[in-house]
Amino acid sequence: MQEQKDKAINFFDVFKLPLLLVAVIWLIHFTQIIFNLDWGYYGIYPRDFSGLKGIITAPLIHGDLKHLISNSVPLLLLGGILMYFYKRVAIRSFFMIYILTGITVWIFARSVFHIGASGVVYGLVAFVFWNGIFRRSLQSIVLALVMTVLYSGYFAGILPNQEGISWESHLCGALVGIFVSYFYKEELEADEKPKEDPWANEPAKEDQPFFLNRDAFEKTKEQRLREAEGLSDWISTKTWEE
């Protein structure tokens, strides 16, 4: 019973942040629909100081229900993966991806309003995928393969000149995800660290029985031949003396 309770608590901790974010996004979207509002001007408008607010607000605004659903599902899944498998850096990585994606879009993107959480989604996909390359632990490599299977179609989203799509957000998010993955590549999780050989630091005890000379495997073939010849001469001499 206690074990089931612990698992439930762990599940809540893993999905707490992504669920909260998605709940806020859905609340904002239905507020727009109910009150017939258009909050598109809260998006990022590049190189305009009034558009700086979009760095925080743009991922929370979506154009329609299809746009909202297409970002909500991967936010939940990728957010859960981030919080479960990369606990040490999860919160820092998420907010770095969120903020840096917005900043790079503001600097480099076209002069239109950019809205939606797709840039953050691309950042999370890139972060999880490139961890498999930078960390090279079994866990990170398996997760990278999962990203390849689930989100390989996302690569088309970074191609330019797609009408009605902020491909700049996708590209900037992906590049930021790679950067954040590299930035935190040394902060390995406990189960990512290589296991130490328990015998590696065990001092050799001279009084323990050992069936071969302790330096037997360190000698060259020539040294072994010389020792064999010396032993043979010694036996011959000993036999002659007797």
Give a structural overview:
Helix 3 (65-85) packs parallel to helix 5 (118-134) and helix 4 crosses helix 5 (118-134). This protein has two domains: 2-192, Up-down Bundle (Rhomboid-like fold); 210-242. It is 60% helix and 0% strand. The chain has 242 residues and is an all-alpha fold. It is built from eight helices and no strands.
Low-confidence stretches: none
CATH topology of the largest domain: Rhomboid-like fold
Radius of gyration: 30 Å
Quickly count the helices.
8
Indicate the mean pLDDT. 85
So what's the overall shape? elongated
Give the CA-CA distance, first to last residue: 82 Å
Q: How many discrete structural domains?
A: 2
In the CATH hierarchy, what is the superfamily of the largest domain? Rhomboid-like
Task: Specify the CATH architecture of the largest domain.
Answer: Up-down Bundle
The percent range for helix content is 55-70%
